[in-house]
Specification:
four-stranded mixed β-sheet
Length: about 350
């Protein structure tokens, strides 16, 4: 689901608005003029118009509410509380010039409006066996497993394309010819370069095959995750902090369904917690990385990227974290998560 799908112009008809509401599967659209929010249009507004014998060919401006609800960038943290208070399914967040920068949905997903094009390369680790998704991966390589009508790897590429990324490197191994055939056949407005991994080199070792090919900051991503966050903001943070590596981490909340007991050295109960809630940040599998990391890797050495992170951290390099919300990270690594990803992407 893209942010532009929620926007409509005054010149559009009521019928077109109805079709657009069906597409986004929410109850509200936002009317924009000269790229600025001027009104909101709900299914209730349209229903009342129809009951008044209004024409479906009438313009949206005859039906819309020109006193729309919104929040500003500085009050974004109040979005969920405010949405529950006023009972709306989607809420626009505006900048100082009244332009929509993002839209917060009822399930706390935030659709981000891309800023200036971010033309940095993206490297996708697409060569694994995908054992967690067996038996699907017995037939298809993990990057080609469909989520809706297109494979997960194409969803990932499309997400980065929204922010202006144009150059994609896929490190391939398992069933690599199928992956190459797919991307060579589809129409695309970006370039895909394939890097053949002749033997498994882990989630980090395959980067050594890119020596001499990337000379700028790049994004490294697994082929089964989606980050629904403003990529440009992460890049800006990475550069401002002067990090060698920035790991994108997602908040995770877990409720333990049992009473947890802490035992002292003497065998006595030290503390008891009944069904505690635990919160922590976890590695999403997406990183912003400086090209130095590629050039310093040993050739043909299998290594996981988390081990590379640890090595540089222990050597005193700046290795940072960019935290995102729990709903901003979609993981297709397990079959039950595939259904959740479809739901979050608005795929029936």
């Amino acid at each position: 689901m893209k942010i532009d799908e929620f926007m409509i112009g005054e010149e559009n008809t009521v019928l077109e608005a109805m079709e657009q509401l069906d597409k986004v599967a929410k109850k509200v659209l936002f009317v924009v003029k000269d790229d600025k929010l001027i009104a909101a249009l709900t299914d209730g507004d349209i229903r009342r118009w129809i009951l008044k014998k209004g024409e479906l060919t009438a313009g949206v401006k005859q039906v819309a509410n020109y006193h729309p609800r919104f929040l500003t960038d500085c009050s974004r943290k109040e979005a969920m509380r405010y949405m529950k208070q006023v009972k709306v399914e989607a809420l626009p967040i505006l900048d100082d010039e009244h332009r929509i920068t993002s839209i917060v949905l009822w399930d706390d997903v935030e659709l981000i409006r891309p800023s200036d094009p971010l033309k940095i390369p993206v490297v996708m680790m697409a060569g694994g066996l995908g054992k967690r998704l067996y038996p699907y991966t017995n037939i298809l390589p993990k990057p080609l497993i469909p989520i809706g009508e297109i494979p997960i790897s194409e969803h990932i590429i499309n997400q980065f394309r929204q922010f202006g990324c144009e150059d994609f490197y896929l490190i391939v191994n398992h069933k690599k010819n199928m992956i190459k055939a797919y991307y060579n056949e589809i129409e695309k407005d970006y370039t895909v370069s394939f890097v053949d991994e002749d033997k498994p080199l882990g989630t980090g070792g395959g980067l050594s095959l890119l020596k001499g090919k990337i000379d700028s900051t790049f994004i490294l991503t697994n082929c089964d995750i989606l980050i629904q966050e403003d990529i440009a903001k992460i890049y800006k943070h990475h550069k401002e902090q002067k990090n060698l590596i920035t790991m994108v981490c997602s908040l995770k909340n877990f409720s333990i369904p049992y009473g947890v007991v802490e035992i002292g050295e003497d065998g006595l109960i030290e503390q008891m917690k009944e069904k505690p809630n635990l919160s922590f940040f976890t590695n999403t599998g997406c990183y912003f990385v400086e090209p130095q990391v590629i050039e310093e890797l040993k050739n043909d050495e299998a290594v996981g990227f988390p081990d590379i992170v640890t090595k540089y951290k222990n050597a005193g390099y700046k290795v940072g974290v960019y935290p995102i919300g729990e709903k901003a990270w979609l993981d297709m690594g397990q079959p039950d998560e595939m259904e959740r990803m479809k739901e979050m992407l608005g795929i029936g």
